Amino acid sequence: MNWYVSVLKNYVGFQGRARREEYWMFALVNAGIILILSVLQSLIGLGQILTTIYGLAVMLPHLAVGARRLHDTGRSGWWLLLILIPLVGSIILIVFFVQDSRFGDNQYGPNPKHGASPNLKF
């Protein structure tokens, strides 16, 4: 949960790098929240209002952590535009997101694996 909160706190931070763990923990918690909201709105009969509001609220943090994740693999955040290509773009981005960090510092900053990370508690 700390990874999720740290991404939300850095919601406009498009500079720097994000570890795989940061990106995928945010994506996992995000998917869980969307699932819960979907069940709630279908039980209450609200249509898609809850998931739409939530999706708009986390759109900017999701783009920011995606750009930072791409920076960690040595790519520009502009690669996120691949999502506009149906199916193929999503597959390419998933491949980029699962790749390991580039060793050492790069043009986007120091390697986050060697820096401080949020204290995870389960």
Describe the secondary-structure layout.
Elements: H1 2-9, H2 20-44, H3 49-72, H4 88-98
Helix pairs in contact: 1-2, 2-3
InterPro entries: DUF805 (IPR008523)
Pfam family, one: DUF805
Keywords: Membrane, Transmembrane, Transmembrane helix
Short overview:
The chain has 122 residues and is mainly alpha-helical. The chain is built from 4 helices and no strands.
Q: Can you walk through the features of this model?
A:
It is built from four helices and no strands. It is mainly alpha-helical. It has one domain. Helix 1 crosses helix 2. The longest helix is centred in the first third of the chain and has 25 residues. The chain is globular and about 50 Å long. The termini are close together.
* Estimated structural class: mainly alpha
Q: Kindly estimate the percentage of residues that lie in beta strands according to DSSP.
A: under 5%
Helix content: 55-70%
Count of DSSP H/I helices: 4
Count of β-strands: 0
Number of domains: 1
Radius of gyration: 15 Å
The helix-strand sequence is HHHH
Q: What's the shape?
A: globular
Uncertain runs with pLDDT below 50, 5 residues or more? none
Q: N- to C-terminal separation?
A: 8 Å
**What's the story with the biggest beta sheet?**
none
Overall pLDDT, averaged? 90
Pfam families: DUF805
Transmembrane segments: 23-40, 46-65, 77-98
Protein name: DUF805 domain-containing protein
Keywords: Membrane, Transmembrane, Transmembrane helix
